[in-house]
């Protein structure tokens, strides 16, 4: 198997009979009990891996073909949320110390660039502006003692100005669509897709009341909409760019307590290939776990092309050159899209 890049591909094809393929995926040689998760791709052949135990947490880079490991960051603090910027040059980490929590941004070599305290020690949801890396959405639940209920708190962290300003958004997952424009689905008082502009003080605008969730990668938007014809189907509306409707794919519907469950989707290139973990039939999760396949979402033909059956419904993350997928709740496996094989990453298992 070759890496996602095409370097050396011509030479390999010319010597196909004499030179066997040697670039096989290597096992991650770390103790199972310190493995936390694979965070994501740093390049087409290198992963960012989170390790940790009671003595401290560490971030390492791991080359899936050479097995090389390099320590990027280590501390006695606990690491919660970790996010790689789209440029792959910066990493955001949420560090929890004994009496305080910090958000910090480091380089991929581990150098500290920015840090700020936040009054929250649980997992914070973050979304990093792909065009303005100095802007980060930070969201979490805050318990309001006066009203005796949780409320959503959303902030914009501006690392350039060293400020954190609150934004009135009723969603734990606002997403940057461009340098200034953001999208979200309202989590309370009904669904609906909203659009806002950080430069404007006016209220955000409802642009589609039917969308209950969405997937976004750069300017590719995939909205998830309940079918108004069948109780067992859901529509994936593909827009590229936003508000320019193109094609629709219909898939079986999965619910949890009568709420629609969004399928896991991934895309790595602008308007590139898109993949999804799709149910093979409609069901309710509180009644059964169902069956799933990995499929390419072919919006041009409005079809799905099955690649392989999956053991469970779990997140996926496509590598920059579209050859491999991370798979699993901790991204503990790699799927080779050419051979349609699942390769476990960990050499040490329970």
- Overall mean confidence score, pLDDT: 91
Number of strands: 31
Low-confidence stretches: 1-21
**Sheet bearing the most strands, described?**
4 strands, antiparallel
Strand content: over 45%
* Number of contiguous helices: 1
Strand order of the largest sheet: 1-2-3-4
**Overall 3D shape:** globular
Give an overview in words.
InterPro entries: YqgU_beta-prop. Pfam families: YqgU (PF21101). The model is unreliable at 1-21 (pLDDT under 50). This protein has one helix at 9-14, and strands at residues 35-41, 46-53, 56-63, 69-75, 78-84, 90-96, 101-107, 112-118, 125-128, 135-144, 149-158, 163-166, 175-176, 181-185, 193-197, 205-208, 211-217, 220-226, 233-239, 245-252, 254-256, 259-260, 264-267, 274-279, 283-284, 292-298, 303-310, 316-318, 324-327, 333-336, 341-344. A 4-stranded antiparallel beta sheet has the order 1-2-3-4, with no helix packed on it. The protein has a 4-stranded antiparallel beta sheet with strand order 5-6-7-8, with no helix packed on it. Strands 9-10-11-12 form a 4-stranded antiparallel beta sheet, with no helix packed on it. By secondary structure, it is mostly beta strands. It is globular. It has 1 helix and 31 strands.
Short synopsis of the structure:
This protein is mostly beta strands. Helices cover 2% and strands 51% of the residues.
